[in-house]
Write a structure and sequence with these properties.
alpha/beta; Nucleotidyltransferase, domain 5; two-stranded antiparallel ribbon; 7 strands; globular
């Protein structure tokens, strides 16, 4: 059994994840959506099949000028992510975008810079080649941030 860590960049219907196995290999993808809502069963399978032992989730909230309906959908998606992880017994570490992006000297709103940095750091990871893959890239960078943070704490 290979234990892994997952990082999740939540989205109402555009969430993404990155998984790092104990071997150091990483993979990225989009969170599955069914009928316009995050698919909890698919997320649970992803966690189970990859033997996820820890999770990093971007701590997010409502965005200014976001409509009521989209804010609600986003909140439901975040709740599904938290519920599935906790229900799976996976310890969750929440990190704000400002914290992990500051670690990489990234401007908070420049999604393309995050994608470029993820490609630079992980040239063999597939699934980062399109501009729309910025969520995958951000999840991958959160994994790097989490690993660096934990390595700094070791004696």
């Amino acid at each position: 059994m290979i234990a892994s860590v997952i990082a999740i960049d939540p989205g109402a219907v555009s969430g993404a994840y990155a998984i790092r196995l104990s071997s150091g290999e990483a993979s990225v993808g989009d969170l599955a959506v069914v009928n316009g809502q995050l698919d909890a069963a698919s997320l649970a399978r992803l966690i189970r099949d990859n033997h996820v032992m820890r999770a990093v989730v971007e701590q997010v909230g409502a965005m200014p000028k976001q409509g009521v309906a989209s804010t609600f959908r986003f909140g439901v998606a975040v709740g599904i992510i938290r519920g599935v992880l906790l229900g799976s017994g996976v310890p969750v570490h929440y990190v704000t975008p400002n914290v992990w992006k500051k670690h990489f000297n990234l401007n908070g709103k420049d999604k393309e810079a995050a994608r470029a940095l993820a490609i630079l750091h992980h040239p063999t990871v597939e699934g980062l080649h399109l501009r729309k893959h910025h969520g995958r890239a951000e999840a991958l960078l959160m994994l790097d941030w989490f690993r660096n943070r934990n390595e700094e704490k070791r004696p």
